[in-house]
Amino acid sequence: MGKVEENKKQKKDLLLKTAFRLFTEKGFSKTTISDIVQEAGLAKGTFYLYFQDKYDLRNELIVFKAGQLFDDAHRALETSHASGFEEELLFITDYIIDCFRSQHALMEFVAKNLSWGIFQNTVSDTGFLTSQKFYEHFLESMLKYGVHCDTPELMLFTIIELIGSTSYNCILYSQPVPIEEYLPYLHSILRQIIRIYTDEKI
């Protein structure tokens, strides 16, 4: 990456980082584009080099934060002692939930938006290569452990939607129960989902 491209990336990352802080502190509706560029120390015209409007920035920010989350989860998985397809997915689940439990601002912003559409954007965007590696690892893990699944994307879709919705409600509102109480049930459900989508008894 050349100096010009690196400079552009740094400015865009700064806008995303500043917007995330303001959105979580002031709220999305109360944050203006002027607030963002002023806090970032950039000219207002710079904003429109990267985003059409505040909503466009928010959508990219959701993908950006989700990408970071999968990036971190993938790196943690590589240094873990998880062995087996089911064990790896449960490790990823616990890692994401632990992040949400310790970072409520991240959870409020991402968890309710952690959908398949967001995940697809994350792994297909060349700006999030490690997240792409996470998805590739998911597919490679099935081969490694001899797990056959005709529809791996559907299985991952189901898992991601479940983690996002249950985390948001159980952590933020303790509804229907706190996440600590629900986690064993979530693990059991995830095991059943894996069995439904695969031909192997893991």
TrEMBL record:
<dbReference type="InterPro" id="IPR023772">
    <property type="entry name" value="DNA-bd_HTH_TetR-type_CS"/>
</dbReference>
<protein>
    <submittedName>
        <fullName>TetR/AcrR family transcriptional regulator</fullName>
    </submittedName>
</protein>
<dbReference type="InterPro" id="IPR001647">
    <property type="entry name" value="HTH_TetR"/>
</dbReference>
<feature type="DNA-binding region" description="H-T-H motif">
    <location>
        <begin position="32"/>
        <end position="51"/>
    </location>
</feature>
<feature type="domain" description="HTH tetR-type">
    <location>
        <begin position="9"/>
        <end position="69"/>
    </location>
</feature>
<dbReference type="Pfam" id="PF00440">
    <property type="entry name" value="TetR_N"/>
</dbReference>
<dbReference type="InterPro" id="IPR050624">
    <property type="entry name" value="HTH-type_Tx_Regulator"/>
</dbReference>
<dbReference type="InterPro" id="IPR009057">
    <property type="entry name" value="Homeodomain-like_sf"/>
</dbReference>
<keyword id="KW-0238">DNA-binding</keyword>
